[in-house]
Write a structure and sequence with these properties.
The chain is of the alpha/beta class. It has ten helices and twelve strands.
Length: 269
């Protein structure tokens, strides 16, 4: 199935799928400066949402608020229909239930710009750490699954290597495999190719595209416009902390309504 056909089928079936992520009125401020100014967004199960926008528009902050690497200043985030509980304290807003946060985070996996692999662990050790320590999976089972994932991303011959001996593209492929190893409900990608040399971008995008074809729910912050056009079924244009425009890729890239979006698309072509 072509990517565009797959996207159209997902859009047609959107009413029959449960919500994977629901964001309502999300705000985030740093030292009085509001970075997110009331974002509403829904990702249904199997959606692939690409978030695009200029530097400083709040894209990465939005992702970090979803998995609570950053605590929202206001608004709600729900994962699989479960709203993350917050409370007001003397130090500001905090999660109200640590057990809930741990449970919800176990459903999410994030791939960062700069890989964030554990440099003192081999590749196989990187992949089995979270499944065994956090999720309590038997080491033998975790290792067998990790080897399959390394084979899938083309690195089965490097399982005993350390990250420092890999190229940037190889490290990012390992980071993606490590994210998949915890079998998340939702995968978050924060500009996964931005730290790579141009010749290494394609190998990473291919791995992400393969995952997308499995029906995984994904939210990707990306500056790869062609990739967003071909892989995502919904595109969000974030500008100065608000969603300026959103819709299917054909609409966003071929018939943008917002003047700011038109200018942005022209600038990145």
């Amino acid at each position: 199935m072509l990517a565009s056909e797959n996207n159209n089928q997902k859009a047609a079936n959107s009413t029959t799928r449960e919500d994977a992520i629901t964001i309502r009125g999300l705000r985030k401020s740093y030292d009085g400066i509001e970075v997110l100014k009331g974002v509403d967004l829904t990702a249904k199960q199997g959606d692939i949402i690409a978030i695009i926008g200029g530097s400083g528009s709040g894209k990465s902050t939005l992702l970090r608020c979803i998995n609570l690497l950053e605590i929202p200043s206001a608004g709600e985030v729900a994962i699989d229909g479960e709203i993350i509980k917050m409370k007001n304290t003397s130090e500001g807003i905090k999660p109200a239930d640590k057990k809930q946060v741990k449970r919800i985070r176990s459903k999410l996996a994030m791939v960062f710009q700069n890989f964030n692999l554990w440099q003192h662990l081999t590749l196989i050790e990187n992949l089995i750490a979270a499944p065994t320590i956090v999720h309590g999976i038997d080491k033998n089972s975790a290792t067998a699954s990790a080897r399959k994932l390394l084979e899938r991303v083309g690195l089965s011959d490097k399982e005993q290597s350390y990250p420092a001996f890999l190229s940037g593209g190889q490290q990012q492929r390992v980071a993606i495999a490590r994210a998949v190893a915890v079998q998340p409900s939702v995968m978050l990608f924060d500009e996964p190719t931005s730290a790579l040399d141009p010749e290494l971008v394609g190998e990473v995008l291919k791995v992400i595209e393969d995952l997308a074809h499995e029906g995984r729910t994904m939210i990707l912050v990306t500056h790869e416009m062609q990739f967003a056009r071909e892989v995502a079924n919904h595109v969000v244009f974030l500008h100065q902390g608000v969603i300026e425009e959103e819709g299917p890729p054909e609409q966003i890239f071929n018939q943008p309504k917002s003047e700011r979006l038109k200018q942005f698309i022209s600038s990145v072509r």
